[in-house]
Each structure stands twice: as structure tokens, then as C-alpha cells.
User: Which sequence fits this backbone?
């Protein structure tokens, strides 16, 4: 897609979709086109962080990931909406407004968060690829909710320079696209070494995409073991497992050492504790104009002592060792990305976070993971299949995602945007 084509689609559909905080005219670069989550610096453009008080009103330099794409000749088309300070999985934003999930033109449904605008922009064809950040599922959740591919690498592959933290020990930068190949190739570009920021890479997308997954053995969660799994998501998940078998993959129903949901709470402790240490001063200065739910999430970390944080990090290391040892018997772990479809925003319960019940484990255990579309529910909403690989094994994640995409029947389907046209 050329920058003028992207701009034409943004002008036609972007108003109601509300995916962007800023649109660049003309597009910076020549193409392909990409968008940047508003937690990631783009020089000279405010990094709003999804709030009314910007985190940086005028960054002096592009974030490393942005620099890499521009150097490769990609065209930046704008900055995309995010949950305020990236702390939420629904995609809501009471401070500056939430994007509209493009798969329902009549009901404002949750786009998933926190990289909400990035997923909406890609799903609606407003850009080829978008950058997102992922601390507990914030690339994969909106990818699943909006029917696109979301690829989260393990830590140390993509530089976090110029990325505004939520929880430094959990944060990653990932890519969203309408195909596994596009997401993987963008990841290759942004994974260039950056001094002390990145200790490995670059990622070899072409090698991963060409790998033969025939006879690979993967673990699959048993539907009955997944909390709050909606029947329609279960149906699409089982169909996805059958499709993987058709691709020659041996799918083994398996039970991890602990349910993935068991890592939800300890991941949340780290997010709150580190988040308050990073953003506490910002919260205290701007709480009056922030979403009260976001403020309460950060303030939950205020009372976590340094000793408690250190204990949480020690527990994390033990949990990682246990899970990594179990996963050695498999090429990957397969499960739904989220157990429910995207609900109407009006019905969202901010006291719970079911969309991240299966994704937080990827950050807590520091495992690469992808969400790939696996069909539509009876309500016409997308569902995602999560593929979680071993430590630093982005290649297997991409290979399995590409193999599934080939047999899934999805092949880059897009929503009907008639209800969004201006």
C-alpha cells in the first residue's frame, strides 16, 4: 500500500474508527506503510500515551524500532491510539476516546488493548503494519479482537529505546499485520542490534517462514481447562487444532505445570509495582484528568514494597524455570488468544480482565508468542489462536503461525467498512 492509498482510506474510514491520534501528510517514507502506537516516540510528534497530558510533547529522536523501519524505506502514516499509559486489555479509553472495532459497524465493540489503534488500523486496511507494545498481551489481545496477526517476540530482540515503559521487566515491542509474513518481515527489520538494548538478533524472517513444521509436536490446552471459555471460541479453537493436524503437526492435549491463568496475578503484581515506580510521579501530577480505572491500577503498586517486588521477581524466575523445562517436550503451546469475543464497550467490566487471562503468561514467562486469526463467531467477531514458543524461539512461532495461516482459510480477510465510510 502506498502512502497516498493509506491516506485515502484513513480519510474515508478513520473518523468513526478513531484509530489514530495523528496522521502524517504526506507519509514519511515511500512504502510499505506503518503506524506507530502512541507509547513509542516519533520525532517531533507528541507521544501522548493515550492521555490528555503527553509523556513527551516533542521527542527529539525516533524510537529505535521506528528508525529501523524508516531506514528500510517504509512509510510512516501516523500515531495510533492506546489505552491510557498502556494499562488495560479491553481497549477502552475514557481520557481521549476508544477506537471502534471494525468488525461491527453498528455496535461499538472493544478493540482489545492496549495497542488498540494499531490493531484497528491494520484490520481496516489503513496501513500495512503497525507497531505495538506488549506487557501482558497488548499486541496479541487486540490482534485477536480485530482479526489480524499479532507477533510478540521474547525480550532482548527488539530495542526499547524510545518506548515509554509500563513495566520494564515485562515490556516488549511487537508487530501487527494482516499476514504472518508481513508481521515477521517487519519484526526482522526492527530487531537490528542496538548496543546494550538488544543482545540478540536480527531475526531471520525468511528462514522462519520457509521451515517445514510437518511432524512437529505441539501441546494444546484442553478446552475444559480454560476458564470462562465461550462456546463459540471453543468451537473455533477445536477447528484450528484440526487444521494444524491437516498441516502435519502432531497436536497433543496437554496440561502445563500450572494453568496459564495462574500467571495472571503474579504478572499483575509486577506490572503494578514497576508501573508505579515508572509512572507514579505522572499519576500524582495528572490523576484528575485521567481515567479513574487507570489511576487505580497504578496506585495498586504504590504499596508494594521493594522487598515484595524482589520476592515477586524471585518467584518469576522459579516459575520460568519450571515452565521452560516442561515446554522442552514440545515445539510450542497452542491455546485461544482470548477466551471470549470482543464485547460491546458499554458492557465492559473494568474490574476484570478476561481478555488477558491467557496472554499474560507469555510476558511473565518471557516466551515469544503470536496471535493468528482462526475464524468468526456467530456474531461475526474474530477469534485468535495463540502460539507460544520456547525461550527466544521466535522462529518456531512464526513457522507454525505461517503453516496454520495456509490451512486456516482466513488469508487476510477484512471487515466490511460500509458503516464507517464518511
Assistant:
Amino acid at each position: 500500500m502506498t502512502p497516498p492509498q493509506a491516506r485515502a482510506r484513513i480519510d474515508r474510514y478513520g473518523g468513526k474508527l478513531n484509530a489514530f491520534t495523528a496522521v502524517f501528510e504526506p507519509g514519511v517514507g515511500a512504502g510499505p506503510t506503518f503506524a506507530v502506537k502512541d507509547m513509542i516516540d516519533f520525532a517531533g510528534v507528541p507521544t501522548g500515551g493515550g492521555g490528555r497530558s503527553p509523556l513527551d510533547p516533542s521527542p527529539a529522536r525516533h524510537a529505535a524500532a521506528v528508525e529501523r523501519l524508516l531506514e528500510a524505506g517504509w512509510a510512516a502514516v501516523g500515531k495510533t491510539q492506546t489505552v491510557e499509559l498502556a494499562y488495560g486489555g479491553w481497549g477502552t479509553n475514557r481520557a481521549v476516546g476508544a477506537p471502534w472495532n471494525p468488525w461491527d459497524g453498528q455496535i461499538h465493540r472493544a478493540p482489545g488493548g492496549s495497542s488498540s489503534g494499531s490493531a484497528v488500523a491494520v484490520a481496516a486496511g489503513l496501513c500495512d503494519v503497525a507497531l505495538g507494545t506488549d506487557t501482558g498481551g497488548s499486541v496479541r489481545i487486540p490482534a485477536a479482537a480485530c482479526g489480524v496477526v499479532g507477533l510478540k517476540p521474547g525480550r532482548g530482540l527488539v530495542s526499547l529505546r524510545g518506548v515509554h515503559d509500563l513495566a520494564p521487566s515485562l515490556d516488549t515491542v511487537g508487530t501487527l499485520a494482516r499476514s504472518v509474513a508481513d508481521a515477521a518481515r517487519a519484526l526482522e527489520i526492527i530487531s537490528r542490534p542496538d548496543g546494550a538494548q538488544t543482545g540478540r538478533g536480527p531475526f531471520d524472517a525468511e528462514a522462519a517462514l520457509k521451515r517445514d513444521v510437518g511432524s512437529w509436536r505441539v501441546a494444546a490446552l484442553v478446552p475444559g481447562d480454560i476458564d470462562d471459555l465461550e462456546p463459540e471460541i471453543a468451537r473455533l479453537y477445536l477447528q484450528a487444532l484440526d487444521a494444524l493436524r491437516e498441516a502435519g503437526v502432531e497436536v497433543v492435549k496437554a496440561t502445563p505445570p500450572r494453568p496459564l491463568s495462574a500467571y495472571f496475578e503474579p504478572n499483575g503484581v509486577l506490572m503494578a509495582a514497576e508501573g508505579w515506580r515508572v509512572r507514579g510521579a505522572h499519576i500524582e501530577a495528572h490523576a484528575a484528568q485521567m481515567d479513574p480505572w487507570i489511576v487505580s491500577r497504578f496506585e495498586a503498586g504504590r504499596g508494594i514494597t521493594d522487598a515484595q517486588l524482589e520476592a515477586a521477581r524471585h518467584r518469576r524466575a522459579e516459575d520460568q524455570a519450571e515452565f521452560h523445562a516442561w515446554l522442552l517436550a514440545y515445539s510450542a503451546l497452542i491455546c485461544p488468544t482470548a477466551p471470549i469475543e470482543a464485547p460491546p464497550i458499554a458492557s465492559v467490566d473494568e474490574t476484570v480482565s478476561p481478555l488477558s487471562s491467557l496472554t499474560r503468561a507469555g510476558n511473565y514467562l518471557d516466551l515469544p508468542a503470536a496471535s493468528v486469526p482462526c475464524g468468526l463467531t456467530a456474531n461475526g467477531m474474530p477469534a485468535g489462536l495463540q502460539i507460544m514458543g520456547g525461550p527466544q524461539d521466535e522462529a518456531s512461532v512464526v513457522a507454525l503461525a505461517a503453516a496454520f495461516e495456509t490451512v486456516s482459510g482466513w488469508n487476510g480477510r477484512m471487515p466490511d467498512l460500509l458503516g464507517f465510510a464518511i
